[in-house]
Design a protein that fits this description.
Number of helices: 12
Keywords: Actin-binding, Cytoplasm, Cytoskeleton
CATH superfamily of the largest domain: Severin
Structural class: alpha+beta
Subcellular location: Cytoplasm, Cytoskeleton
CATH architecture of the largest domain: 3-Layer(aba) Sandwich
Order of helices and strands: HHEEHEEHHEHHEEHEEHEEHHEH
Family: Belongs to the actin-binding proteins ADF family. Coactosin subfamily.
Largest sheet: 7 strands, mixed
CATH topology of the largest domain: Severin
Helix content: 25-40%
Number of domains: 2
InterPro entries: ADF-H (IPR002108), ADF-H/Gelsolin-like_dom_sf (IPR029006)
Radius of gyration: 23 Å
Organism: Cavenderia fasciculata
């Protein structure tokens, strides 16, 4: 046990030194400046991927490669005999607006022995911190899982930018009028936790009542927001009549939130209401929390269901009334 903590202590020292070196913008090679992690997280910078791995010991890491050829180029550096970690920057279009997204890649080659997987894997958290912010994580042992297409599919699923018009229209058949909407009646449900056991993600009766309030066409309340209190409990944050832009004022980039918004949609003389679900995971939310709340997605979706559109974001600028209205208009093919 003493040896374990001793090794962890010196790994952190080496990692800190490596981080200082790797992010030093003044370090230059003979031909060109060495790539830095800051480059990957700089919008528009030519360097859009970086890959690091172990240098013969779980306590030492090295640069395997970097470049401007995207995910497919990164994949060429993956070998069945190594464990490696990488970050790739891609551009996702959300409502026509180019937005940088980051994929964190954990590679465990099929030739890596089980003992080495356990020995080397103990330092993953430190390397994750080194590589910085990401939107999705892909763990793979086959190169076919690390492609530009696969990464973009995962990115667009997470951001909600993939075209889901067909799915929404199908769901639309259940929307006769507000009174026909089905609202959740269960306030405690079981979802998978970080381990193999199940834990309860709890919703108070108050939350279910406020969701009904927003979905009531006669009620002026047109948004509500909930957030985490502890690991598995969701509590009321705020509600109001000022729409998405007012909701966004309550978002913090270190927290995760879910919400529902309402807008009136008039066609000829008929007025119906369209509902949007807000999923917000702040850009500075810890990787540990991100991993935990991923398992809650299905339960959250059920709680707010049915809705017409979904808005995903990690910054306030991605949660706006303009984005919501554009998504609603897209339902009609405008």
């Amino acid at each position: 046990m003493i040896e374990y903590y001793f090794n962890q202590y010196f790994f952190r020292i080496r990692l800190s030194i490596y981080l200082i070196y790797f992010n030093c913008n003044n370090v230059k090679s003979i031909r060109s400046r060495k790539p830095t992690i800051g480059d990957i997280h700089t919008s528009g910078h030519p360097t859009n991927w970086i890959l690091v791995g172990y240098d013969g010991s779980p306590n030492q890491i090295k640069l395997i490669g970097s470049g401007n050829g995207g995910v497919n180029e990164l994949a060429q550096h993956l070998d069945d005999s190594i464990m490696a970690y990488g970050i790739a920057r891609v551009v996702d279009k959300v409502d026509g607006i180019p937005t940088d997204r980051y994929a964190y890649i954990t590679w465990i080659g099929q030739g890596v022995k089980g003992m080495d997987k356990a020995r080397y894997g103990t330092n993953k958290a430190h390397i994750t911190k080194l590589l910085g912010h990401y939107n999705i994580e892909i763990a793979a042992d086959q190169r076919s899982d690390i492609t530009e297409t696969e990464v973009m599919n995962r990115i667009q699923d997470a951001s909600g930018s993939r075209d889901r018009t067909g799915e929404v229209k199908k769901a639309n058949t259940t929307y006769g009028n507000v009174s026909s909407l089905k609202n959740p009646t269960t306030t405690t449900v079981k979802v998978p936790g970080a381990n193999t056991s199940s834990v309860g993600l709890t919703f108070s009766d108050e939350l279910a009542s406020i969701v009904q309030e927003v979905k009531d066409g006669k009620n002026q309340t047109n948004w509500m927001l909930i957030g985490y209190q502890g690991k598995e409990s969701l509590v009321f944050v705020a509600k109001g009549t000022g729409g998405v832009d007012e909701l966004a004022q309550h978002l913090s980039d270190t927290q995760a939130y879910y919400g529902i918004v309402k807008t009136a949609d008039q066609i000829d003389q008929s007025v119906t209401y369209k509902y949007g679900q807000i999923n917000f995971v702040g850009v500075n939310v810890s990787p540990l929390l991100k991993g935990r709340i991923t398992s809650h997605k299905g339960t959250i979706d059920k709680f707010f269901s049915p809705v017409h559109v979904v808005i995903n974001g990690e910054q306030q600028s991605e949660i706006t009334d303009s984005i919501f209205q554009n998504k609603v208009k897209a339902l009609k093919g405008n």
